[in-house]
Amino acid sequence: MDKNQLGVQYMQEGNLEEAAKAFYDAINEDPKNPTAYINFGNVLAALGDNDKALNFYKRAMEIDPTAAAAYYSAGNLYFSNEEYDQAKKMYEIALKHGLDTGDNYFMLGLTLMHLEQPKFALPYLQRSVELNKDDAEARFQYGLCLTQFELIDEAMEQFTKCIELDRTHSDAYYNLGVAYVFKDNAEKAEEMFTKALEIQPDHLLAGHARKIMNQ
Questions:
Q1: pLDDT tens digits for range 156-175
Q2: What pLDDT is stored for residue 214 in this prediction?
Q3: Quick count: other Cβ atoms within 10 Å of Cβ 133?
Q4: pLDDT confidence bin for 140, thresholds 50/70/90
Q5: Is it the case that residue 37 has pLDDT exceeding 90?
Q6: 3-state secondary structure of 160
């Protein structure tokens, strides 16, 4: 089996040490293969060594400036460090080089939301949902973005689908409750806030909202 494939298998099994060895061997066998550097970077990122991981992603970019996966992985590191401008740049380059995946659209949209640019985030989040119809978190974030434009009915549809996919998504119940408040349906709103609290008893927003409803 190819060393890169073997390393990916080890990663899927949660055996990061063996994965690292396999990717290290892959780099030694073919130092001009960007995939090996990306994979080794992914292991380092999983181990929390973000600085070294970023160096491996950059090396992959140097070898192949069109290695979209390297830009996407680097974007994830920048996002986790709350360096949203850099993350946005990486996701956009990944998209430019053909990474037309739901995950890339989702992360780009989410980054734009953190940059308080919902107008630009909306089409990316919409596309992420189109590509990953069963991604509960993508639907939730798309719903949140829709609320920025007071598209309440459309947002409610996304929150409802999110809950269908993930019955434990307390934030989706809470935001659906808020939407019912806008719809003047106090009974359904309180039901949603209660459900959020059943899942997450320390959900402060849901607790406060239900208290106001009871008053």
A1: 999 999 999 999 999 999 99
A2: 81
A3: 11
A4: very high
A5: yes
A6: helix
**Cα–Cα distance between 69 and 122 in angstroms, integer?**
23
pLDDT value, residue 213: 83
Q: Decide if 27 contacts 36 (C-beta within 8 A).
A: yes
The Cα angle at residue 124 between residues 118 and 129, in degrees rounded to 5? 115
Instruction: Note the CATH architecture for domain 1-99.
Output: Alpha Horseshoe (1.25)
Confidence of residue 1 (pLDDT cuts 50, 70, 90): low
Instruction: DSSP for 164-198, please give it.
Output: HH-TT-HHHHHHHHHHHHHTT-HHHHHHHHHHHHH
- Which positions ≥6 away from 201 have C-beta within 8 Å? none
Q: Is 201 exposed, middle or buried (0-12, 13-18, 19+ CB in 10 A)?
A: exposed
Inform me whether the pLDDT recorded for 56 exceeds 70.
Answer: yes
Residues 6+ apart with CB under 8 A from 202: none
Q: Where are the domains of the chain?
A: 1-99
| CA neighbor of 111 nearest in space, from 146, 151, 75 | 75
